[in-house]
Amino acid sequence: MENIFTDEYFMKKALQEAEMAFDKGEIPVGAIVVIDNKVIARSHNLTELLNDVTAHAEMQAITSAANFLGGKYLKDCTLYVTLEPCQMCAGALYWSQITKIVYGASDENRGFSKLGTQLHPKTKVVSGVLENECAILMRAFFRTKR
Amino acid sequence: MENIFTDEYFMKKALQEAEMAFDKGEIPVGAIVVIDNKVIARSHNLTELLNDVTAHAEMQAITSAANFLGGKYLKDCTLYVTLEPCQMCAGALYWSQITKIVYGASDENRGFSKLGTQLHPKTKVVSGVLENECAILMRAFFRTKR
């Protein structure tokens, strides 16, 4: 039987979150955390609504997943996020010791990979999953702001 | 008349916060945010109590100060923190566009300056204020953990 729980499967759920951010006038980034093919956290960017630069989708997802697990380390967890994490979020992911990060669109200016933010040695990274879909939503958002 | 509102004056208040963290069994880091010589946010590390790697003193101080100001940018604000910010906190400070960061003890392993985290071009940094006092508290904490 085919495994339906692919990276694309979960990234679609992160994209649904990004669309919720879009509808609220937020930069459309969504994130989920998965353990054993189960979604344990969902979030989307809320920096405008909360007036808080720390309210990125990933930060909320990390807090929420740790709350679910009852411990601060995200062992055996995968974060799916529609946009490449920034320095802040990558720095938080470093502390979380998360097992895997999967992101959609790259962020050439403020993404952690260009800026050289250190991840935990235990963390694997996969990029470019549903990259087009994630990037199209971002471009559509910024087009509404012109 | 002598100006009592020196960096040392405010760092002492951050140190009081660090001592509160120490008393709770948390890595003793404290932070305050100041605007026009007025303290608008106080916080200390709560990562253990909250089971949350994002609950560093600085992160809470940024959220709290933005809440006080009613806007997410920390223009004309100074953050005083007893330990050099990590990648996550420096990344959050980047987004906040804070005017000035003053820290006490350096963190040779996980501090942002060694790891090359980018701050906002508007942000000035002062280091080493009450460095000994801040470092002594950290060492005392880790001695209790041996």
TrEMBL record, chains A, B:
Gene3D superfamilies: Cytidine Deaminase, domain 2. Its cofactor is Zn(2+). Its EC number is 3.5.4.33. InterPro entries: APOBEC/CMP_deaminase_Zn-bd, CMP_dCMP_dom, Cytidine_deaminase-like, MafB19-deam, tRNA_aden_deaminase. It catalyses: adenosine(34) in tRNA + H2O + H(+) = inosine(34) in tRNA + NH4(+). The keyword Hydrolase applies. Zn(2+) binds at residues 56, 86, 89. Residues 5-115 form the CMP/dCMP-type deaminase domain. Binds 1 zinc ion per subunit. GO terms for molecular function: tRNA-specific adenosine-34 deaminase activity. Keywords: Hydrolase, Metal-binding, tRNA processing, Zinc. Belongs to the cytidine and deoxycytidylate deaminase family. ADAT2 subfamily. Homodimer. HAMAP family: tRNA_aden_deaminase. This is tRNA-specific adenosine deaminase. It comes from Flavobacterium chuncheonense.
